[in-house]
Description:
heterodimer, A: alpha/beta, 8-stranded mixed beta sheet, 22 helices, 8 strands, elongated, B: alpha/beta, two-stranded antiparallel sheet, 10 strands, 56% helix, 11% strand
Amino acid sequence: MILNNLGSSLKESLRKLARSNKIDKRTAEELVKDIQRALLQADINVKLVMKLSNNIKKKAIKEEVIEGFDAREHISRVVYEELANILGRGIDLELKGQKIMMVGLQGSGKTTTTAKLAKYFQRKGLRPVVICADTFRPGAYEQLSQLCTANAIPFYGDKGNKDAVEIVKKGLKEKKDYDVKIIDTTGRHALEKELIAEMEDISKVLDPDHKFLVLDAAIGQEAEEQARAFDESIGITGVIITKLDGTAKGGGALSAVSETNSGIAFIGTGEKVGDIEKFDPEGFISRLVGMGDLKALMERVEESITPEDMGVEEILKGKFTLKEMYKQFQAINKMGPLKQIIQMIPFGGFGIDITDKDYNKTKNKLGRYKVIMDSMTDFELENPSILNGSRIRRVAVGSGSDTNEVKELIRYYRMMKKALGAFKGGKITGMPKNLMKMFGRQG
Amino acid sequence: MFKSLRDKFTSFKHSVGKAVHKKEEAEEIEVSSNIQISDLPTTKSSGPPTKLISTTTEEVTDAQKTPSLSIEKEKMKKKEKTKKVGLKDKAKTLILKREAILDEKDLAGPLWELEISLMEGNVALPVAEEIVSNVREDLIGKKKRIFSNTEEIVEDALKDSIKDVIRNDGPLFDEMISTGDKPVVILFVGVNGTGKTTTIAKVAKRLIDNDYSVVIASGDTYRAGAQEQIEIHAERLGLRLIKHQYGADPSAVIYDAVEHAKAKGKDVVLADTAGRMHTDANLMRELQKIKRINSPRLTIFVDEAIAGNDAVERAKQFNESIGIDGSILSKLDADARGGAAISIPYVTGKPIFFFGVGQRYEDLIVFDEDWLLGKIFGEE
C-alpha cells in the first residue's frame, strides 16, 4: 500500500508523547527527528523534509492545542496540514476535448499509463486517440499499438519515422475528430539536452492542455531535480505516479509535485489497462501518515458537533451529569457508525486492537444506555446520585432492561466522571477508549 | 554522480572537526590555569612542532599511516593567527599532553547530519543507520591528541564503514563467464521498467567484444512490445534471438535458447524476463520455475540507480524468493546519487557487476568497490 510504513513509524514516535496538553521543546525535537526519519524513508526529498519538520516543530510548540484535542492529536494535525501543503491541490481534469502530453524518465511507465489514461477517458464516454511520439526506444511503437489494439483504443503512429515533431503534427491532423488526444513521448532525463530540446519542440507544436510527468513510485531523491528540469523546460501541469502496487512509497513523486507546484493527477496500481485511479489528495496523505482519515474526522466533527453538543461548557465548569453523558452519546451517533469514527481517529484506535466484536458490543451498549437514560426523569439525569434501588427498578422496567444493567450504566457514568475530573477537558477521544476498556474487561 | 554524497561527506568531516576543535579549545582554557606548575617542563623535550604532531597522530591512529602535513601546517597557521605569540609555546606544550576523547555528545550532531546526507544520497534508511552506527562505534572513545587530523580519522572511519557494507569477496563477472561449462546461462530479473532489456543488449555487446558467442532468449512474453524491443537489439548486434509468441511460457523460451546454444556451441545465453513486482507471489513463482528448469549460472537483478528506499525492499525480496548472484544498476546517468549502489549490496550480500550510464550499447561500466569509494571520496 501507498506509503504505509510511514504510518507505523509516525505512530511509534507519537506514542512517545505523553497525553498532555503541553508539548515541551525537547519532546517536540525528538518527535520531529522521528518524523524526519519516517518521511525520509518514504523517499521524500531531504530539503523538503527539513522545511517540513521545521514548520512542524514551530507549530507544534507555538500553536495552542485546540480544545478537545490532546498533544498527540495536535501534532498529527500539524503534520497533516504540512503534508497537505506540499501535496498541493488535486488536479481538476475536465471531461472534455483536450490534448495531453506524457513525459518522464526512461522506464517510468509512460506508455502503459498512456493506454490506461485513454481507457479512462473512454470509460467516461469520450473518444480518445493515442499518438506514439516515442521514436527512440526499440519496440515503443509496437508496445503502444499492441496495447491500443488489445483495448480498442484508436492509435496513430508512424513506424520508422524518427521525427517526433512531424509525427505529432501529422497525427493531430489525421485524428482531429477525436476528443482527447494523448501523446506518448520518449523517456528522457534532465541531462539529455537533445531530448529535452525535442520535448520542447513537441510541446510547442502540440500546445497541450495538460503536460503530465510520469514518475515511478520508487524514485528517490533525484525526483525533485528531474521534476524541476521538466517543469522549467515545458511546464508540468500534473504528476502521475506509477507502480504503486509494489512496496514503493511514492515520496519522491510527492517531492516532484511540490517542486513543480502542481498536483497528482492519477496513480497507477497494476499492469492492466484498468489499473489507474484518479487521485484523491486527502485520502493519500491520510494513508501517508497512517493516521486514519483525520481530515474526514475533523470535517465530520466540525459539521456535526458543536461544543454544546458535547456539553463542553458544563464539563469545563466541572459539571458532568448523566445529561452530559447522554449528549456525548448523541454526538458520537451523529458522526456516523462507531467503527468508521474510530478508524478515522489517528493511530488505529489508540494502539489497542479493536475487533469487530468489540465494536458491535460497544455500539449495542451505547444504544442500550441511551434507552435506559430515556426512562429516567430530567431530575434523575441531572442528579444521578438520587438513583436508589426503587428508582433503578422503575428505570429498568421502563426501559425493558434489568436492574444490573442500570447499575452498570451508573458505574460507567461514575467512571467517566472520575476520568473527566482527572483531566478536565472533555476529550472527544477519551470516551470511546474508556468504553472499549470497560467492555473489553467485561467481555 | 555521487557528487552530492561527496560534498556531504566533506561537510560531515568538517563538522566533526569543528566539534572536536571546540572541545580542544575548551580543554586548553581549562588547563591553561595550571600551565606553569606542571606542564611547562616538558617543553624542552619537544622537537619541531610539525614533526611532533605527525608522530602523535601515528601513535593515536595506527590505521592512519600518512597524516597530511600540509593540512596540519595550515591548521597551525590558523591557530597561530588567533593566539598571541607568547602563548604559542605554552599551547604546544598543552597539545602534547592533552588528548581529546570523542564522546557520544560530540558526535551526535555530526552523525545525524551524516545520516541525513546518506539518505539525501539515496542510501536507504536501514543502510544509512548501519553505516552511521559503525562510524559511531569507530569514533567514540577514540583518543585523539589535539591537533591530530580529525578529518582524516573521520574519513577513514566512514570509508571503512561503507567498505564493510559493500564488500564483495566473490568472483568477478568476467571470471564467472570464462570459467565453467558452456553455455553460460544468465537470467535477468527485476521490477518493471528498470532497464532489463536494454541492459541485456549492453551486456551482450560487452561479451561480443570479448569474443564470446551470444544468444538471447526473449523471455518477456507478457509486456506489449517487449519481443519487438529485444528483437531490434538482437538485430542491431547481429545476434540470434530465440522467441516464442506472446503469452508463451518463458521457461520454455529460455529452454529452447539453451538447447540452441548447446547445438550451435554458443558460449552465453542471455535470458530476458518480464518485469514484475516483488510483491506478486505468482509471478515470483514463475521466476522460480524458470530457474528450476534452466539452472542459470548467474541470476542478475536489474534495478535503477535512481530508486530510493524501495530499492532495498525489492532487492531483498527478489534475493529471498529466487536468489540472485549480483545486480546491475541502470540509469546512473540520470544524475543518480548512487545510494542504491551502497544499499543493494548491503541487503543482498551480493555484488554489483555493472552500472548502466547511457543509451548506447557501450554505456556499461564495471563496478568495483575502490571505484565507488573513489567516486564518493575522490576529487572527481
